[in-house]
Design brief:
heterodimer, A: alpha+beta, 2 domains, 6-stranded antiparallel sheet, two-stranded parallel sheet, 15% helix, 20% strand, B: mainly alpha, 3-stranded antiparallel sheet, elongated, coiled coil (chain B), mitochondrion (chain B)
Chain lengths: 194, 217
Amino acid sequence: MPYKYIGRTTDFKGKSLWEIVGNLKNFGVGRMVVRSRFERYPEKSYMKILKVETLPNPEKPSIDDMRFVKVWVESTFRGKTFPEPIVIERTSYKTDFRLIPKDEEQEYCKSPVFDCTKIVPKTMEFPPLLKELLIRNAKAKGNSLEEEIKLEIFYNKQSLNTSYKIAKDGEKPTVEIVSGLGKPVSPRLYEGLK
Amino acid sequence: MLKLTPNLRLLSKHDATNFTKFESVRFRRRKPISLGTAKSKLFKIPPRPSQSEEEKLELQRLHNNYRTQMKSLRYYFIVNHSAEFAEASEDPEESRRVFEEDLKRCTSINEKWNEKQREIREKAISKQQENDIIAALEKVELEKKKIKEMKENIEEIVRKEKEQSKTFITAENIDAAIEQALANPVDYNFALISSGEKILGRDNIPGRDKNKASMNQ
């Protein structure tokens, strides 16, 4: 008979950490687990189990308290490995962990190839008042404004490696960054507005 | 007082120029969480909030644009601000002097503002203190009045009791009282007949003296 779940739904997917390590030889030291919440990022996040300690039974054991376990892991979050091991204890009860089979570990760890097809503009318009001020200041100083002044856009350095690249001279950006509404993703959302 | 949001209120109606005039409200007109879920709502499953994909993307785009612009502006100001001092002179000592002078100027502006705010604040505090003192004195007066009234009430009760004590049965007149009670037995029992007439006494027979209580108790 198929399961029929009742009650509130959850974003978690998987088992609690004790359900996984309790069933493994040597408590799964050396194996790889992932949190399904972190699988939404394009970069890979995973944890390698280094050491496992069980915890004493609580005084009043309930179904929620009995799921805790203390696990030291070498954690990689969004492609970056932390230098120090991380202890998972308070979050070990979350039924959000998934064990990666040994033969799939290598494949899972491979960082995906990012296609930086998104080209972002290098500069954008100043806010109108600031622009007016800057023009006045420049004129007061006697500078001639041959070309229009533009604000240079400051991008996140990490995202530049993975998600997009800045337009070079003469290159046409694929996205626009403006201070107003800009070009909507779907014009349907703005229908009927005055 | 003006309540802006459930947990923020404006203190002064006339001066809303800055955020020092706001106060967070610590009570909420809700049941405390410790009361638990109501019986009728115990098995209610609220639907998960859902957002359409295009709406999500649109909001994300607007948000990203806004953040990028703000970040760029902040960066622009930082770079330009430090460039001003670098431009001032080739000599780093001189640049530092210019920077410190500017800092001094900014600090003096800030201090001036703080001084103004301090005056306003102290004035408000002293006024509040005066009001508090007046309120406290009023409270003391009220309390005194209350105590006086209470004492008067007690005196009245004592006076009445003293007056009544003249008729009390004491060791001296107990024999006379017993004699009196035995001589005049009273029966409070009565029966009602269908016409609503009261027949006093347990052993009374209708037709006899109605108002005379029975002797046999």
